[in-house]
């Protein structure tokens, strides 16, 4: 009887350990947000003189790989929060529609179906929705749609609302609006309420992008005082980062330390990266084609031993599986020793 109780107790111990480890695994603080994380690949659009296609490259400009390849134009890639999906625009059915695909270009799926021009897609932080703009037809404006193409909802009614992008904390959408006089950056709630202009009149601001912590917005100012700027999310504290009028299309790196952007000077359109304070400007692409619309892939990171490392499923599971194995082995030894008496 004692031996049987000892065996039962040992197996219960192992079971409890496994349960604790499984629940502990669920609490590992992995970052999956659109935007905070490790710095993965940079997706971008390339125009070779024939059509527009989507490519990716490493953060240093190496390892360029083509993801789309067809006779229609594919452009404007935007990464999902977990870095596993890309939404983009395609002209495959004659007009502009919103598509999604896997990070390697597989499983390309159309999610809007109409005779209008749908552009500028961007993911919600939880990966369930996509915001985009429609700039044609009887009902232009900014729309939100589920990632599977269902539940399309119009949240603004202006023809000249463009560049919508969701804040990483999910509370706001920033966008550019033309009011008949100039372009400005606005913010609103994800349902379209509480619309507020956050840049001053008299300039032209465009192409907003949120910092990973949702506290800052980088944007393009053009026509006068050209260049890239950064400001607080409420529009205060505007700081000029660059003075080149050919700089445009800025986007934050997932770790918040870099900004990727495009320079259209020197007879071409090339992709650059710089520190988030505007220093250390580095050219990533250098060719005879046009490269533009860059977007940086977030990679999951987790603190291990006080150091942030990129993680995947195996990285997280391995130490827990080792501990489970050790617990099971120790339990088995206890059972065998007690059985001898």
Query: In CATH's first tier, which class of the largest domain applies?
Result: Mainly Beta
Strand content: 35-45%
Q: Provide the CATH superfamily of the largest domain.
A: TolB, C-terminal domain
Number of strands: 26
Number of helices: 2
CATH architecture grouping of the largest domain: 6 Propeller
- What does the largest sheet look like? 4 strands, antiparallel
Instruction: Quickly count the domains.
Output: 2
- Based on helices, strands and strand pairing, what is the structural class? alpha+beta
Distance from first to last alpha carbon: 12 Å
List the helices and strands in order.
HEEEEEEEEEEEEEEEEEEEEEEEEEEH
| Spatial strand order of the main sheet | 3-2-1-24
Rg, Å, rounded: 25 Å
What does this structure look like?
With 341 residues, the protein is α+β, with helices and mostly antiparallel strands. The chain folds into two domains: 2-29 and 312-339; 38-299, TolB, C-terminal domain (Neuraminidase), CATH 2.120.10.30. Helices cover 15% and strands 40% of the residues. The chain contains two helices and 26 strands. It has helices at residues 2-26, 313-339; strands at 38-47, 52-57, 65-66, 74-79, 85-90, 97-102, 109-110, 118-123, 129-134, 141-146, 153-154, 161-166, 173-178, 183-188, 196-197, 205-210, 216-221, 227-232, 239-240, 247-252, 258-263, 270-275, 282-283, 290-299, 301-304, 307-310. Strands 3-2-1-24 form a four-stranded antiparallel β-sheet, with no helix packed on it. Strands 4-5-6-7 form a four-stranded antiparallel β-sheet, with no helix packed on it. It has a four-stranded antiparallel β-sheet with strand order 8-9-10-11, with no helix packed on it. Strand 1 and strand 2 (52-57) form a beta hairpin. It is globular. Residues 4-34, 305-324 and 330-341 have low confidence and may be disordered.
């Amino acid at each position: 009887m004692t031996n049987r109780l000892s065996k039962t107790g040992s197996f219960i111990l192992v079971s409890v350990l496994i349960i604790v480890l499984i629940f502990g695994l669920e609490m590992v603080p992995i970052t999956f947000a659109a935007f905070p994380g490790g710095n993965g690949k940079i997706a971008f659009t390339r125009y070779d003189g024939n059509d527009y296609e989507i490519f990716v490259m490493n953060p240093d400009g190496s390892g360029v790989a083509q993801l789309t390849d067809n006779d229609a134009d594919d452009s404007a890639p935007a990464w999902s929060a977990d870095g596993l999906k890309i939404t983009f625009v395609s002209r495959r059915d004659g007009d502009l529609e919103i598509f999604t695909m896997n990070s390697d270009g597989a499983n390309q799926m159309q999610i809007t179906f109409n005779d209008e021009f749908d552009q500028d897609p961007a993911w919600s932080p939880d990966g369930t929705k996509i915001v985009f703009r429609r700039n044609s037809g009887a009902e232009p404006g900014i729309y939100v749609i589920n990632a599977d193409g269902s539940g399309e909802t119009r949240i603004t009614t202006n023809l000249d609302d463009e560049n919508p992008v969701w804040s990483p904390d999910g509370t706001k959408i920033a966008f550019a609006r033309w009011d008949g006089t100039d372009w400005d950056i606005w913010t609103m709630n994800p349902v379209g309420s509480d619309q507020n202009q956050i840049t001053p009149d008299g300039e032209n601001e465009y192409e907003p992008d949120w910092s990973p912590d949702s506290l800052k917005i980088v944007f393009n100012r053009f026509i006068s005082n050209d260049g890239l700027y950064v400001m607080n999310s409420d529009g205060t504290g505007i700081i000029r980062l660059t003075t080149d009028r050919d700089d445009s299309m800025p986007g934050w790196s997932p770790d918040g330390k870099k900004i990727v952007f495009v320079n259209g000077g020197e007879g071409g359109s090339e992709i650059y990266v710089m520190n988030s304070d505007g220093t250390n400007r580095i050219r990533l692409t250098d060719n005879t084609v046009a490269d533009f619309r860059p977007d940086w892939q977030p990679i999951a990171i987790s603190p291990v031993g006080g150091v942030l490392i990129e993680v995947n499923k195996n990285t997280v599971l391995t130490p827990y599986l080792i501990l489970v194995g050790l617990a099971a082995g120790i339990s088995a030894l206890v059972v065998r020793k007690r059985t001898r008496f």
